[in-house]
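Thread amino acids onto this structure.
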């Protein structure tokens, strides 16, 4: 695997880990905000899955933002002047 492919894979995995971690954090905030009397075991587990899925979506968005940033930096980089064009 090339270094560029490895970097893309690592960026994707790190973005997904960050997104799912955010989802887990928001799930814990949800548990603190909702009183335990209003939660059943089904509601708690389905909410955890929903928060993980939203976190995975956030991970994809973070990955796309990183790709856009890399593309913009590649385009805005000044090109070296060659002697043939001068």
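Threaded sequence (86 positions):
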């Amino acid at each position: 695997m090339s270094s560029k492919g490895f970097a893309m894979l690592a960026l994707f995995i790190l973005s997904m880990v960050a997104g799912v971690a955010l989802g887990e954090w928001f799930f814990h905030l949800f548990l603190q905000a909702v009183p335990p009397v209003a939660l059943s075991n089904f509601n708690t587990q389905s909410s955890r899955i929903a928060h993980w899925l939203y976190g995975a979506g956030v991970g994809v968005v973070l990955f796309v933002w990183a790709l856009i940033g890399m593309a913009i930096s590649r385009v805005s980089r000044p090109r070296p002047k060659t002697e043939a064009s001068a």
